[in-house]
């Protein structure tokens, strides 16, 4: 088990900065996820931690020891690649044994360790098969076993689930999390799948063009996004333009499309107020808005809207509605309490205090 410090690390290819003065710390035993869209620099950062790429600037520390220039094979990290990178001409046993042979373990020790780890990932009975004779999920577990068998200080995983079908992906989330916890190992997991990140991680660094946009727990990122980018990337969020902002104690009253909502202050008070409206948006998740029929029962602050359409999704229905400013908004209603608003119906919308003011 180890902690990792990434200290002001920069990596460029030609004129393009891929990782831009990025700093973060991963704690002992933590399951830490690097999340972000394609091309944001996740793999580049992971490969720097593994030692396959050396940063131009900054330092990497493993348990306070500077490993910035330590070669990959001396870093005691185990890596699972997106395409698994198994040796096709070696059996499952030999694939997993590879790292131990390189490290000159005795034959008996190799047999014991490989046997144990294959049993742990549920592949003990397939030790003599070749990768070409395995399913995607089985290959994925061989790759995990190969990374774990050397008892690395850090387990690095680059989109290890992306080649699996939807059902297996979800099962393998639990397998990986369980193995990581049993081995009591620090893990860094790369994905562009926000649901995977939310369901597996202790903490998540959301990356945007080589920088951290927000670093938080899954709950923190979902409930308290700081930016429109984070609100949009994690879960679904309506991003509503702000027409006015006014302080109200620890809260901020936000004017939107003819209505108001009072939300916790998220840095607005320290912002430049004259520019504030254009610099902020209201992030309103579909479950943080309530639809009331007609305008008669509208409460102060409610926003007038009309229904465009309704989509039934089993446990919930999602409505698309048009606001007076012409924008469209989505609202979720639990099916059990959905009165079914018809298209074109005039309604009023209450925005709950769970909405967040985010940087545009
Ligand atoms: N060897 C290289 N030479 C030049 N540019 C590179 C090289 N490797 C990566 N890049 C560029 O760096 C950027 C980040 O790449 P990286 O592979 O880290 O992204 P990623 O976040 O892992 O994306 P994905 O989700 O698609 O795997 C991309 O724009 C990519 O084209
Ligand atoms: Mg990648």
Q: Explain this structure to me?
A:
- By secondary structure, the protein is α+β, with helices and mostly antiparallel strands.
- It has two domains: 4-228, 3-Layer(aba) Sandwich (Rossmann fold), CATH 3.40.50.300; 236-359, OB fold (Dihydrolipoamide Acetyltransferase, E2P) (Beta Barrel), CATH 2.40.50.
- 24% of the residues lie in helices and 35% in strands.
- It has nine helices and 21 strands.
- It has helices spanning 42-50, 92-102, 107-120, 136-148, 166-183, 194-200, 218-223, 228-233, 276-279, and strands at residues 4-13, 16-26, 31-35, 57-62, 65-66, 77-80, 154-158, 186-191, 203-208, 211-216, 238-241, 244-248, 251-256, 259-264, 280-284, 289-293, 303-312, 316-322, 328-334, 346-351, 356-359.
- The protein has a six-stranded mixed β-sheet, sandwiched between helices. It has a five-stranded antiparallel β-sheet with strand order 16-20-17-18-19, with no helix packed on it.
- Strand 12 and strand 13 form a beta hairpin.
- Helix 3 (107-120) crosses helix 4 (136-148).
- The longest helix is centred in the middle third of the chain and has 18 residues, at 166-183.
- The two termini are 39 Å apart.
- The model has no long low-confidence stretch (mean pLDDT 92).
- Bound molecules: adenosine-5'-triphosphate (ATP) and magnesium ion.
Summarize the structure.
With 360 residues, the protein is α+β, with helices and mostly antiparallel strands.
Bound molecules: adenosine-5'-triphosphate, magnesium ion
CATH topology of the largest domain: Rossmann fold
Largest sheet: 6 strands, mixed
Let me know the average pLDDT: 92
DSSP helix count?
9
Across the major sheet, the strand order is 6-7-8-3-9-10
Please tell me the total number of domains: 2
What is the CATH architecture descriptor of the largest domain?
A: 3-Layer(aba) Sandwich
Q: In CATH, what is the class of the largest domain?
A: Alpha Beta
Q: How large a portion of the residues is in β-strands, by DSSP E? A: 35-45%
CATH superfamily of the largest domain: P-loop containing nucleotide triphosphate hydrolases
């Amino acid at each position: 088990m180890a902690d990792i410090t990434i200290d002001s690390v920069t990596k460029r290819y030609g004129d393009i900065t891929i990782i831009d003065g990025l700093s973060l710390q991963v704690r002992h035993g933590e399951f830490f996820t690097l999340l972000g869209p394609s091309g944001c620099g996740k793999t580049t950062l992971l490969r720097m931690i593994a030692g396959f790429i050396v940063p131009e600037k900054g330092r990497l520390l493993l348990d306070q020891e500077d490993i910035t220039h330590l070669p990959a094979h001396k870093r005691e990290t185990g890596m699972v690649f997106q395409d698994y990178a198994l040796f096709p001409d070696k059996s499952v046993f030999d694939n997993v044994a590879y790292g131990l042979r390189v490290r000159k373990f005795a034959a008996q020790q190799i047999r014991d360790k490989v046997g144990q780890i294959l049993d742990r990932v549920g592949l003990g009975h397939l030790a003599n098969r070749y990768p070409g004779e395995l399913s995607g999920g089985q290959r994925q577990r061989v790759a995990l076993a190969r990374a774990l068998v050397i008892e690395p200080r850090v387990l690095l995983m680059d989109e290890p689930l992306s080649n699996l079908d939807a059902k297996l992906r979800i099962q393998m989330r639990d397998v990986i999390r369980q193995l990581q916890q049993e081995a009591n190992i620090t893990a860094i997991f790369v994905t562009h799948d926000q649901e995977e990140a939310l369901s597996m991680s202790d903490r998540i660094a959301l990356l945007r063009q080589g920088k951290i946009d927000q670093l938080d727990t899954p709950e923190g990122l979902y409930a308290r996004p700081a930016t429109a980018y984070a609100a949009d990337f994690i879960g679904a969020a309506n991003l509503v333009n702000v027409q006015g902002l006014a302080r109200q104690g620890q809260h901020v009253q936000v004017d939107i499309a003819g209505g108001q909502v009072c939300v916790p202050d998220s840095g607005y008070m320290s912002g430049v107020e004259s520019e504030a409206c254009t610099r902020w948006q209201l992030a309103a998740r579909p479950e943080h808005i309530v639809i009331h029929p007609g305008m008669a029962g509208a409460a102060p602050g409610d926003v007038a809207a009309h229904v465009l359409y309704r989509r039934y999704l089993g446990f919930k229905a999602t409505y698309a509605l048009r606001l007076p400013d012409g924008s469209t908004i989505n609202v979720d209603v639990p099916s059990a309490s959905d009165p079914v608003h018809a298209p074109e119906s005039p309604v009023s919308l209450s925005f709950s205090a769970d909405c967040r003011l985010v940087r545009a």
